[in-house]
Amino acid sequence: CTADFEETNTNPNAPEMVSANLLTATATSQIARTLTSEGYSDGNTLTQLMAKNNFPGFGQFEWGDQGLWNFFYEILPEVTDILEISRAEETKNSTYEGIALTLRALCYANLTDLYANVPYTEAITGKTDAVFTPKYDDQETVYNGVLQDLVDADAALALGEAITGSTGDVIFDGDASKWRKLANSLRLRYLLRISKQRDVSAQMQAIVSAGNYIMTNDDNATLTFSGTSNTDSWPESTGRIGGFDEKSLCTTGLEYLTRFNDPRLDIWFDRNNNGEYVGIPIGLNQDNARAYDDANSPSRLDVELFYFSRTEAEAYIIKSSEVNFILAEAAERGFISGDAETFYNEGIRQSMKYWGVTDDAVIDAYLAQPSVAYDGSIELLMTQKTLALWNVDYQGWFDYRRTGLPALEAGPDNENQGLYPVRFLYPSSEQTLNEINYKAAVEAIGGDNINSKGWWETGTRY
Amino acid sequence: QTTFTGTVLDENQIPLPGASLVIKGSSTGVATDFDGNFSIELPQGNEILVVSYLGYIPSEFDTSGKTTATIVLQPNSEQLGEVVVTALGIKREAKKLAYAVQKVSGEDISKAKETNVVNSLAGKLAGVQVTGGNSGVGSSSQIIIRGESSLNPSPNANSPLFVVDGIPINNSVSSRSNEGNMEVDYGNGAQDINPDDIETMNVLKGPSATALYGSRGANGVILITTKSGKNNKGIGVSYTNNTTFESILTFPEYQYEYGQGSNGQFAFADGGQNRSITGGVNDHVDESWGPALNGQLIAQHDSPTTSGLRAGDVHVRPRNADGTFSDEIIATPFLSRPGNIKSFFETGHTISNNIALTGGNDKGNFRLSFTDLQSEGIVPNTDYNRRSYALNGSYQLSDWLKVSGSMNYVNSNSGNRPVNSYGTENIMYLWVWFGQHVDMDSLRDYWQPGLEGVQQYNYNYNYHDNPFFNVYENTNSLDKDRVITNMRADIKLAKGLDFMFRTGFDYANELNMRKRAYSTQRFPKGQYREDNIYAFEQNTDFLLGYNTTFNDDFDFGLSFGGNNRIVKNRYQRVSANSLSIPGIYNFGNAAEPLTSSDYDDKKEINSLYAFANFGYKDYLFLDVTGRNDWSSTLPLENSSYFYPSAGLSLILSDMFTFPKTITFAKLRAGWASVGNDTDPYNLLSTYGFGTTFNGFSRVNSPSELKLPDLKPERTNSFEVGADLRLFSNRLGLDVALYRSETKNQIISLPVSNTSGYNKTVINAGQVRNEGLEITLNATPIKSENFTWNSNINFTTNRGKIIALADELPFYQIKENYLIVGAEVGERMGDLYGTGFVKVTDTNSPHYGKWIINSDTGLPSRDSELRNLGNYNPDFMLGFQNSFRYKNLNLGVLFDWRQGGVYHSRTVSIGGTTGLLDFTTEGRETGIVAEGVINTGTAENPVYEKNTINVPASGYYSTVYNRSNEETTMYDASYVKLREVKFGYNFPKKMFAQTPIASASISLVGRNLALWTENPHVDPETISFSGGSVVPGVEDMALPSTRSYGFNINIEF
After folding, report:
1. For residue B854, what is the nearest residue in chain A, using CA coordinates?
2. Do B488 and B591 share a domain, yes or no?
3. Same-domain pairing of B732 and B820
């Protein structure tokens, strides 16, 4: 009665095993695309470079489930599979191993930065250990792992093993040396992030001395969209024009950009119908935002760059401008040797060049302005860095949470008692699917609310 | 040869229509007409007629020396004659059964006809819950027998098995979203069955009734017997026309006092098409917090411009170099238009014509039937059409061999099916976000001049599609071919020893095409998509039966059979998500790489079974069955599973002498254990294909962890019942009490995605259903000219979760805004969602009130999930009355469902947007939210009544906020006037000189009235999410409809 049952029940539609390149294409494309589209709308809103004139709930801090938890935990299986394949005897490849470790570090660092305690040591072990309700680890534990992954990635990528055939890597097409620079740049980002808690100077200095990090735009971890379909296009270009029109220049961002007489204002934003740049405050409620919008006509984002073109705007993980600002702050705080001003100027220069201001004389003139010229102030440094972090996921918000700079205030109709939020809420699915661990984590972080601070921002070293 | 005529009457001298008269010793016979009259040719002259009628003692009548007679039959107090169809199509006497079987006759469902035959069962049967879909004619209908026992979210997991003439058929629901499309309800499989071809539907309720069907019978079985030419001599022709009209039964109560806008402000410039250049005052907004509709002059989308165009023709109006318009809008009155939205809808209609030919002789019979059904929905340009061709026949080839077969071909098609759920593709979404100043007629001309086929015209370009554009240009077609066939041979091997062999299949091929025009919100450059669905199921079975009587006291039957079942499904979806040339729907016209998805699956089940029945003195009956299945979907070592059943029935009224008032009394008890397998490929996880990215192929890691050592599911059930009939059958009472437990359920358990999976297949869970069914039949009046029959059926069922997996306290069955969750110790069907922060101290006089945020004057949402009630009813009651006065008859059916809750998204969104009637309160004055403010501390609260006045828009958009479901939970109780039939049978003598044998006409109505709590929507609603049916959520449902019309039947 069961003669051919085994054959009948063999799935003809989908494979049980795949090669690393197919998974790498999924992981690299989705991570870069998602981080940038999050940065574009919500990251820029939290740093107040942008605000919404319609449906402004996010800027009022009326937060529910934010999607990134699900995004990262649902891309981590691919990353984990690449790592497993890259370490298996018959498919061993140190470059895929390094790529996977780098991506894993990136995912978990973002998770803990956004949510504080998160499942880490027991996460993604349903397959190997049948753990379906992973415990949450504290932020320090996650950071230890993230930094170790990046050290391991650096070692693996240093071997420079080639990938034969299609790499699936939409960022560097399998170039191990560029991935190595990315891994080390991320290490610099995360070492600085925990520097209120730990002395990170030796590790940062070692990376700087070795020199394998992203120094110029040529090494940026960017993804250029090919625009053949909605999937591989700049995300906003495939949305509603009405949705695009809901995003406006924020009054705070306008103040930075006019203070610096900044050419990026004209690159990122359009003038309104009166030919002016006008901002809208963050945190107005729906009625007030609409009334303000009707009365003032705030500037929208550059429609040619961010809506009409499927390919002009890029996605990225980290760029040379950010790395230089990291080093500028590290130098200023004495974590590394070197001149903070040089790194600061280079950060600005790299950002300007990235955005198309290629004339060095123009940049020099910009740098020479009293409002821009470096004066050793962390506030100025962080303000410039915030601009350079345009569209870079939530890095500007994380810097604000660590340094309090540049100062940000909640908007008039905020729903958080005037406090500036410091974390996302856990998704409600964890309440039903991982209840015990969820409750323990809520207890540990002092409540599942948007004001519970994480480990690195409560350090006291500065 | 002589002609013998006469009349057959019952003991009260009332004619018995359809009584059978057979010449003794032959198979020649006739049936009486509506007036009990008959006419039969007697070949020899003096013969004996055997006269029989269900429920009456057969009588023999000697015709010797007579040419006419009035024959009176006496009722059979034991109801010996009542024969019902049971598992495997075996006809049994009802009295011998140890379980409840309820029968619905074809006449019951074909008069007040439902296009979806499942709907016609609503309210007629105890233990059966029918929920109609809300996509108009052609929608899916969900049927649940004795409660949901499965934790599996599949829309088919709790569906009973449908069997047509012995062949199991597919009743799956298809509604697929993906590719940026929303779900379209393409109907459930059983709706392809043509009501005109149904002779009877027998509903087998518990596993004891269905044990022989194996796993698939665990949720009950609906056995459909199609009409045949049996009992017909010569050629019979019947013609039936059924014409009904559908109009709106429930419709949201919109406000017509305030127009589009925000803060009371509105002026149209470009409908939000390009705000930064062409401005406008809240014309990008799609809510109705705008100015009062007082006839004041305001620029609107349909206001003329100085260039002679409509203001909304924004793509063709003349522009200056900087992109601003060079023409001016001439403001027009801002008017209230009561009934505006309703005017979009039309009166639907369904016209069904059936013609059937029957014929037969003493060797065989046949029936040929053709039905054409055409309907148009209340939504413009939506329809559903069905053509059914049915042929069946049987022939007695020799004394020992009889062959029979049937072939049904059904084509169902639609040019456009309405879209479900929340989003721009559903027109009901377009009304809860709307501008109430918009004159519906202004939108009928939906292209911008010169841009026909390229750019729609609308009042709002920010979020919405023009509703007429939506229904006329963006279509979701259906074209489904289905063949259900069977062939059967019955062989008499020896006296008492019979062999049956049967094979048949159900084949369906369905093509759904979705077309989206240029300028559609979701597809600015159009879309063309095809879904191809192929389903095939073949069943081949045999049965060897032996029956004997030892002496007058014992009878005994033993049968042995087997079944081979092969199921194949294929699905393919291809989509071009942008088009090069507008209006050409062909994959060659794709402007970007095609996306596609497909799967192919197969499973096979082999079964062997045996059953035995023993009878003692015709009052004690024992049935025993056993079945073993081998399923390809389970691991080889677990692929075989056995399940037994046993049933006992006692006719007390025959065992003992009862008072004369008690005509019949029976007790019954049954027990069964049934196993179940799973879907194909549930043992090993696989990777999924993604779309290419920058030319790189992509795959996704498995999101579901499969279980290599799955075990079969198991349902154990126990049932006891009693059947009591009094006063010569004038009063009948049937009671059934049951308990069934399903354990080891094969479920795809949602798990925390932090584990690396979203779901994991497990064997776990135990669900217990307990219920009571009562059927009461009464004939309070029965006289020659007037009869009144009354039937009440009552059902109550409680499904309880006894256990889930180890240490698993909660299981999320499915989700559509609300989570349908299973918690150990709680009921099946519990709904979880969020609500506002409330006073939780039960000692406080303010207990249960909202705690108002003193900064905003509004309640605040609590993100913690709370139990918001259960979607299952406390009880259901169907109340059916039929009256007959001479040739007139009247039937009235009320369907009462008590208890249960549901979430109404229509009210939630329509409250937020200021579109529903209740949002006018406080527009001018502001509103103070009902609730208290904590003036103390969090630890020691002091509550004082809230006095903060807030603007109406802020109040309603917070209170009805869609992420807070508690505000819009409603009592799902309702009473529906389900069915009214008023018929007239024309007197036979009218047609004496014509070939017409009989004729009747009925006026029919369905769902004529509804009484319920929420005035905006019909509580009988199901939503779709992820291809699954989610009860307890009304999600932008189309208005429910009432239908009324007539039915004409002529027999030749």
Report:
1. A417
2. yes
3. yes
Q: Do the Cβ atoms of A270 and B276 come within 8 Å?
A: yes
| Cα separation values, B1035 from A317, B431, B900, B1021, Å | 39, 13, 17, 9
Nearest CA in chain B to A12: B600
Residue B732's pLDDT band, with cuts at 50, 70 and 90, is very high
Best mean pLDDT range from B8-17, B128-137, B218-227, B907-916 = B907-916
- Reduced to 3 states (helix: H, G, I; strand: E, B; else coil), residue B97 is coil
Residues 654-683 of chain B whose Cβ lies under 8 A from any Cβ of chain A: 680-681, 683
Residue B980: inside a domain, yes or no?
no
Supply the ipTM of this predicted assembly. Answer: 0.95
Contact between residue B1028 and residue B155 where contact means Cβ atoms under 8 Å apart: yes
The reply to whether B935 and B1005 lie within a common domain is: no
Kindly state whether residue B234 falls inside one of the protein's structural domains: yes
Residue among B521, B577, B639 whose CB faces A240 most closely: B521
Say if residue B77's pLDDT is above 70. no
Chain A within 8 Å of B753 (Cβ-Cβ)? yes
Share of chain B above pLDDT 70, in %: 97
Inter-CA distances, B218 with A62, B90, B150, B432, B629, Å:
47, 18, 10, 41, 14
User: Looking at beta carbons, which residues of chain A come within 8 Å of B818?
Assistant: none
Q: Domain extents for chain A?
A: 20-222+312-407+420-458
Cβ of residue B214 closer than 8 Å to a chain A Cβ: no
Min Cα separation B526/chain A (Å): 13
How confident is the model at residue B79, as a pLDDT? Answer: 47
pLDDT (0 to 100) of residue A235: 94
How many structural domains is chain B composed of? 3
> Does one domain contain both B726 and B811?
yes
Which residues of chain A have a CB within 8 Å of the CB of B701?
A: 23, 77-78, 80-81
B283-333 pLDDT, tens digit per residue, is 999 999 999 999 999 999 999 999 999 999 999 999 999 889 999 999 999
pLDDT in tens, B488-525: 999 999 888 999 999 999 999 999 999 999 999 999 99
Query: B429 in helix, strand or coil?
Result: helix
Q: For residue range B10-49, what is the model confidence (pLDDT) as tens digits?
A: 776 777 777 888 888 777 788 887 778 888 888 777 778 8
Structure-derived torsion over alpha carbons of residues A184, A190, A196, A200, reported in degrees to the nearest 10: -20
Structure confidence at residue B80 (pLDDT): 45
Q: Is residue B432 part of a domain?
A: no
Residue B445 tokens, joined: 């001309």
Q: What is the dihedral of CA A146, A151, A156, A160, to 10 degrees?
A: 120
Read off the pLDDT of residues B644-664 as tens digits, 9 standing for 90 and up: 999 999 999 888 888 888 888
Contacts by A412-416, CB closer than 8 A, 24 or more apart: A412/A281, A412/A283, A412/A284, A412/A288, A413/A60, A413/A283, A413/A284, A413/A285, A413/A288, A414/A60, A414/A61, A414/A283, A415/A60, A415/A61, A415/A62, A415/B853, A415/B856, A415/B860, A416/A61, A416/A450, A416/A451
Looking at the fold, whether B947 and B1036 belong to one and the same domain comes out as no
Q: Of B72, B98, B124, which marks where a domain is finished?
A: B72
Quote the percentage of chain B above a pLDDT of 90: 56
Report yes or no: A226 at the B interface, CB cutoff 8 Å.
yes
pTM: 0.88
CA closest to A129 among chain B residues: B755
Residue-wise pLDDT for B960-995, tens only, equals: 988 889 999 999 999 999 999 999 988 878 888 888
Single-letter code of the amino acid located at A316 = Y
Residue ranges of E strands in A131-265: 136-137, 221-223, 247-249
- Residues spanned by the domain of B22: 2-72
Which chain B residue lies closest to A65 (C-alpha atoms)?
Answer: B863
Question: CATH class for domain A20-222+312-407+420-458?
Answer: mainly alpha
Query: Are B800 and B671 in a shared domain?
Result: yes
